[in-house]
Design brief:
62% helix; two-stranded antiparallel ribbon; mainly alpha
């Protein structure tokens, strides 16, 4: 409602919490001004209101604790790894990852683990643990690129809960930091249009000028994460 009226994007958990505080203080003030008869009854009602306030605020505060003001989270790495590794073809066998020559890439190049190309070469073997470390390191680089160069301060503060952060990081990992950062999805997110931003992620579903089923699935999942917040 505030965004519709003023065009300013805010964190609803913050103003909802303070509205509840104001309501409780209003009721407390009214009871204090009442005659001293029924003092125990008023005291019971005040304690009840405080309990209700705590019950309302606790879930919001718990959710808010999942990420801090710069959009980071203790669980970000785990969630991002699980999401991106599956999208990149997670090795479920538990065996070694073997490098392969990716002919779809332009230009074609050696690839190993979960889309890693920087140090990949022919006949290269890596363990699952090594591949996880490589992916976590690269995820941090792509995420940092978006946060540093493309997301506004308000976006990083108010619009990037962990799952939305993962969605945009996954997009950048797939299409590149510059492409994701200059996309309509990012511009809409910076403008406070969350739904529009999440929908725009799905536009990146083509390779070589044609729609690719795997990209459609990946973008759909990213959109779900984005809307989940």
């Amino acid at each position: 409602m505030i965004f519709i009226i003023t065009g300013i994007d805010t964190n609803p958990r913050v103003w909802t919490f303070w509205i509840n505080i104001g309501l409780v203080l209003t009721f407390v003030g009214r009871f204090i001004k009442q005659p001293k008869e029924n003092h125990k009854r008023r005291k019971f009602i005040v304690y009840g209101l405080i309990f209700v306030l705590i019950a309302i605020a606790a879930p919001a505060l718990a959710k808010n604790s999942q990420y801090n003001h710069d959009g980071s989270s203790d669980s970000f790495d785990d969630i991002a790894f699980d999401f991106i590794s599956v999208s990149e073809g997670k090795n479920k066998s538990g065996k070694f990852h073997v490098s392969y020559f990716d002919t779809i890439a332009k230009p074609p190049l050696w690839t190993v683990c979960y889309g890693h190309t920087r140090t990949a070469k022919a006949r290269q073997y890596k363990t699952e643990a090594q591949c996880r470390d490589l992916l976590i390191e690269e995820i941090a680089e792509y995420r940092s690129g978006l946060h540093t160069h493309y997301f506004t301060a308000q976006t990083k503060r108010d619009r990037l809960p962990v799952f939305r952060d993962v969605a945009f990081t996954s997009l950048a990992y797939n299409v590149g930091i510059r492409a994701a950062g200059r996309s309509t999805a990012t511009r809409r997110l910076n403008a406070g249009n969350i739904t529009g931003a999440c929908n725009a992620i799905t536009w990146w579903n083509k390779a070589g000028g044609r729609v690719v089923r795997g990209l459609v699935r990946r973008r759909s999942k990213e959109r779900q994460y984005c809307l989940r917040g």
